Amino acid sequence: MTITTPDPITNNQQQVIVRQTASGFEQGVAATAGLLTAGPIGALASWGVLRGLQGKWTPWFVLGVPSVFVINFVNLVILGMIGAAFSPEVEYENQSFQQEKIEQVKIV
Known about the structure:
Elements: E1 2-6, E2 14-18, H1 24-52, H2 57-86, H3 91-107
Antiparallel strand pairs: 1-2
């Protein structure tokens, strides 16, 4: 994106200001790639990194490849914690079975 602005030092002269930013489409592509490779956390991370790198795709890719493994590990840990929170308790079944065995031994 380029913008012309008057030169503050020399009269009647224009300066060109060049700003590197990622367009909305590029940010969407980065977020989609992050979503497909590393889930919702990856979508947020890849979108933020592309904005931070001002639309440069090469460093985005170099940072993204190793981070996919870390983010997927975090996703699996979170998924495991959620799964463990909703799984039935197996310990109570084992304890009641052991109590029955103990009672049977006492009877005999």
